[in-house]
Write a structure and sequence with these properties.
With about 140 residues, the chain is mainly α. It has a single domain, classed as Zincin-like, CATH 3.30.2010. About 45% of the residues lie in helices and about 10% in strands. It has 4 helices and 3 strands, in the order H-E-H-E-E-H-H. Strands 1-3-2 form a 3-stranded mixed β-sheet, with helices on both faces. Strand 2 and strand 3 form a beta hairpin.
Length: about 140
Amino acid sequence: MEPGTIDTIVAGLLAWITAHSGYPMPDQTPVVALVPHAYVETLVCGEKCAALGVYTDRNVIYLDDALQIETNVCARSVLLHELVHYLQDKNGQFLNLPPSLRPPLREHEAYGIQQIYLKENGRVVTFGPNFYLGAFMGPTC
């Protein structure tokens, strides 16, 4: 990927998210690191799994380096999903709720926004009860 391309994609996705979510545009953006799939698996699952990206609370989004975010809308939606988590953290979303409720609500919101993005880009994807980050990247997307 050419230098600056990822920054342009992140800026565009953040603008889209803020227009569709009510989150304000952040003053800074997270670092996006493209890493081997095994590294993402280790961060998310601790073992082999279908995860393709993860946001850490250190303002870093790790994405599977096989994703073609510059050309593939489904791959780009994985980055969008992680950017939603970034905005959730920056805005203290769900902090007033018990800790046990936060993870499912964070995921529900991120997948909901991701689904809208995909639909607006001509892709209809339904996340079922056993979805996991990136598990939808099959022939339906």
